[in-house]
Actin-related protein 9 (Arachis hypogaea), 588 residues
Amino acid sequence: MSQDYLKTALPSQIMSERGSNLVVINPGSANVRIGLASQDTPFNIPHCIARHTKQVPRRNVQDQMLNSQITTAQHMEREKAYDVIASILKIPFLDEEAPSNAFPRKMGRVDGHNPHIIRKDLPFSWTNVYEVASMSSALETSSKDVTSESLDPKEDTDSKELRLSERKFREFICGEEALRISPAEPYCLNRPIRRGHLNISQHYSMQQVLEDLHTIWDWILVEKLHIPRNERNMYSAVLVLPETFDNREIKEMLSLVLQGLCFGSAVVHQEGLAAVFGNGLSTACVVNIGAQVTSLICIEDGGALPTTVKTLPFGGEDISRCLLWTQRHHQTWPQIRTDILTKPIDLLMLNQLKETYCEIKEGEHEAVAVVHSYEDRAPAGSHKTRLTALNVPPMGLFYPTLLVPDVYPPPPRTWFNDYEDMLEEPWHMEYTRPDTFYPNVGGGIPMWESYPIFASKPKREEKVGLAEAISNCILSTGRIDIQRKLFCSIQLTGGVALTNGLVSALEERVLHAIPPNEAIDTVEVLQSRMNPTFVPWKGGAILGVLDLGRDAWINREDWIQNGIHVGSNRKYKDSYYIQAQAMCYLNS
């Protein structure tokens, strides 16, 4: 398609015409965002799969064996962090109750219909684990029995038992339905990505991880986007991948899309870089607060600065876990069995409570809420209670010892010893300023290959709070002009970015985290143009549409025949022109 067309066509026309056969995939630890580039927003689906199992003894969650117990030292650090936060927010310390709270709170069970309970307080329902076809045939049989008015009660009972025994379990269940399966059912829940990496462990092999990823994505393509396998060669895929992914993981994702899912061609973009274009910017410090990992990267003039990448091992799910710990400590949580590690439906409930009630503001912050209990196969029980200290959990972003992230072992180090690099060894090259969409060296080494680390080592996680991480990330650029620009161009993405009060708290704490000898006196978080959860996905859609058919794309046949050597020294030819098109599209 000619450049003249791009200059004259309306943005909506370009997205509609060129995005209808372009699938944008943005995988995360907890959710995967997939949709056609022509859509306004993607499907946002929990990144998990539950498979039917006959194994005895049975684990209903694959990762439950990996969870570590909180040590006494961690518990003391958590309590210390709570008191530091309490002094900042001007609320009572952890073991200091306000006078009005001297007596235990009354907590009652709520049954029946209450018109004052709005939709956010409605309980989740257990997933039907039986195949729909079997259920529908059973219903037909049941209706026939009713019309025939069987005179023999014993015969009627026998026929019902027969129908129950004929029911067939679904082989696998994906997305939110997988999280709502009762622990009593014979299923095991798998999460193929955890803490920003493929979730490989002694209990979960690489082959099984990749097979689960394939099944989840294939299910979404068929059930949500209605793209059958035999038509996928007519579609192209844009992979918007987190900076946490390592070399080998990127290659496995490309193989999954091109070989496993049979897309005709594919291209890879960094999540941070796509986020900048998704908001119509060219320079920003992108802070992506995901469910399990927070990643930071600076972008200058449409090019990533790889030395600025930082990863923090916490996210929104850790805030939800902290919410539960806080309420239990204050004895505001009902006497129910809430276990987010073995009952994923409880994590769904806690995420919902966090999104509804948690915010950052000074003073005591309480709310009356309905908490639900989920026991094996039984309907949800509702418990009305007054939750307290709701402004404390999100402050854990700045004081991460409050969150105490569960420790999951990283993939085996030998798994990263990948001598068959995507293209060339970056440590033999001299890094210069990026001049394309990828953080390339002057010679055109694509993507993460130009990072000044060895591909055989997992990326290092920072042990600091969010404000210090942002300050360190921006100051590592080493130039005062770009530093001033970036401190005034902080971009928050991810669902946690929607937390009320987070922006002002972040601006204040980042300013205080800058060393006094630095000539920086202004910090600003830019407002997002759309739901921050979907910004990187949208950026990937825009980049894919404006660059469809160019040299950076990898064809399926080439990848299968030549593997990683495909695309060597490829880069975007008219990168600044395409960047200008993206700005034109977003600003129109």
The CA atoms of residues 83 and 163 lie 59 Å apart.
